[in-house]
Amino acid sequence: MEIVEIKTRKKDYLSLLLLADEQESMIDRYLDRGTMFVLMDDGVKAECVVTDEGNGIMEIKNIATEPAYQGMGYGRSLIDFVAEKYRGQYSILQVGTGDSPLTIPFYERCGFVRSHIVSNFFVEHYEHPIYEGGKQLIDMVYLQKQI
After folding, report:
1. Judging by beta carbons within 10 Å of its beta carbon (0-12, 13-18, 19+), is residue 48 exposed, middle or buried?
2. Which of 1, 10, 39, 57 is the most buried (most CB within 10 A)?
3. How far is 47 from 30, CA to CA, in rounded Å?
4. Torsions phi, psi of 146, nearest 5?
């Protein structure tokens, strides 16, 4: 397993990026300013995009694992890698996600705790309703962990 930084042609990974953020115009808001990492293990298995949000906060804007490889620890490996890489440079690693029974427990298992909510985020910023685990996503839930 190897994690590499992608500095050019980030859109080559668009199909994977769209697994975590299904509206390309939203991805375009952070992709160029973000740092992208790809986890390789006999091919691309997962990706992660992080951004500097100021005040000592590094934010995971996008993290996705190829569906056939979900639940195998690749997402957690990327989170652990990012937390270790930026330890000492940032004090908080944060992620914003929908209030989903599929994603919130994953982040909590990775050591994140709920921080705050941005009401109606998905309704106001996406062109169509977003559903995950049979539930429409309305609010953005932010979770944080100390690094």
Report:
1. buried
2. 39
3. 14
4. -75, 140
Distance from C-alpha of 74 to C-alpha of 54, rounded to nearest angstrom = 27
**Residue 24 CB neighbour total at 10 angstroms:** 12
2, two tokens? 């190897």
pLDDT in tens, 111-128: 999 999 999 999 999 999
CB atoms within 10 A of CB 41: 14
Domains and CATH numbers, the chain: 2-146 (3.40.630.30)
- Residue 71, SS3? coil
The structure tokens listed for 49 are 């995009």
pTM (two decimals): 0.94
Closest C-alpha to 33, from 60, 16, 52: 52
